[in-house]
Amino acid sequence: MSDRVTVQVVDQEAALEEALDPVAGDSRQAFLRRAVVGGGALVAGGILVGGLPRLTASAAPSAEQDVRILNFAALLEYLQAAFFTEAEVKAGLSGETREFARVAGGHERAHVNLFERTLGNKLRKKPTFDFGDATSNPQRFRATAVLLEDLAVAAYDGQAALLTKPTLRVAAQIVSVESRHAAWARALVHKPPAPRAYDPPATRPQVTRVVKSTKFVTSA
Amino acid sequence: MSHELTLEGIDRSATIAEAQDRLLGSQTRGGLLRRMAALGAGGALAGGVMAALPQVARAATQNDIDILNFALTLEYPAAAFFTEAERNGALSGETAVAARVIGAHERAHVRALRHALGPKAVKRGHYDFGDATEDQQKFHDAGIWFENVAVGYLKGQAPLIDSDAILVVALGLHSVEARHAAWMRRIGGDVPAPSAFDAPITRESAISQFRARGYLAIEPKTTVKKRAPTVTG
């Protein structure tokens, strides 16, 4: 019996485009969009299943790989936590947007705390960030929140299959919260909270490329 | 052969005649992912990932078939619930929009799971949602329940899945159900993300919650099983 699995291609480009739908006139967002969509490597007719970061033998689950993956996730958690924390102070938020920043920020800070407790001295150094005008007003804040939350969902879904099962259990408890945040943020900008029937995974290089394109991380 | 719908778990002493080869066999995980990448056809399919499980049942382990079938057991009533709500046309505003959009997603999930499982798919049951598909408040309550139980169940089952391909799809579904849950909560006036970490639920918990909701219209025939199904969720 053939053990081939026929897997069709995920339209990852569309998924990431959706996440990056720029706020009109926001040059940083527009740059992001070009950076992601322009990269032909994103959708090269390859299968995007299992978040194939590196197609090497080291892709097998292991405690060491868990640490590498969790440190990758930690970058995103640090980023989100810092973003929400700063926006709560700087962005002049009110109403439900302010509530969202407070609640989601609290969750991201809790995720960071978990990673600190879990990884201990194996946790990466805390990065430094410059959010520029992404935290300067409610509109930019909301648009950036959609980007970061959708990105976090895709990142976790892309990495989770590579984790050992105990670590997967932890990651699974986090990714659904990021998904809730993403839906909430989208609702705040009148976008579909759940844009498609399936949330496609992103590969590590794709996530890294998007993060780099934001220029939010000034030292990692 | 198809299974009767049972809520006691999928019968592991299945009537399926085929041998259940492990999908991975002796391959390393990295090797599998490489091979899957090599199978890529050109051209992207927007939202077509549900077709990523075309014939997985042929090569999947019994464990994975059971998990997919259990997901289907809960997707059937979810899809039916939102579909009926849309058809009744009694909801309004964003609630009506959610019924339409979420319903479309749940129907897509049902189609994908049925397609993946082929003849091994459990049969659809018969459901009675009372006036929860017409009354806005009851719809919110039921919709939130459906989505939260899906998130909890998928989260609980994910670490038990043998196949990486199936795991990835399960996680993609899990994320979408969480979006649905947040959306339904927001519409109902609740905070969309109530906590920093979402807990898994066991298969038994999902079953007993579903029974308690009273949505099954007809109790399935209890077929006598020679061996009690092993419910690992």
What descriptors fit this protein?
heterodimer, A: 220 residues, mainly alpha, two-stranded antiparallel ribbon, 7 helices, disordered N terminus, B: 233 residues, 53% helix, globular
Q: Residue share in helices of chain B?
A: 40-55%
Termini separation of chain A? 48 Å
Q: Specify the number of helices of chain A.
A: 7
Biggest β-sheet of chain B: count, sense, barrel? Answer: none
Round the mean pLDDT of chain A to the nearest integer and report it.
80
What is the alpha-carbon Rg of chain A in Å?
17 Å
Walkthrough of the structure:
- The complex is a heterodimer of chains A (220) and B (233).
- Chain A has 220 residues and is mainly alpha-helical.
- Chain A has helices at residues 12-19, 27-37, 63-90, 95-119, 138-159, 165-188, 204-214, and strands at 128-129, 217-219.
- In chain B, helix 3 (62-88) runs antiparallel to helix 4, helix 4 (93-117) packs antiparallel against helix 6 and helix 5 packs antiparallel against helix 6 (164-187).
- The interface between A and B is large, with 69 and 71 residues.
Task: Tell me briefly what this model is.
The complex is a heterodimer of chains A (220) and B (233). Chain A is mainly α.
Helices and strands in order, then pairings?
The complex is a heterodimer of chains A (220) and B (233).
Chain A: H1 12-19, H2 27-37, H3 63-90, H4 95-119, E1 128-129, H5 138-159, H6 165-188, H7 204-214, E2 217-219
Antiparallel strand pairs in A: 1-2
Chain B: H1 29-38, H2 56-59, H3 62-88, H4 93-117, H5 136-157, H6 164-187, H7 203-213
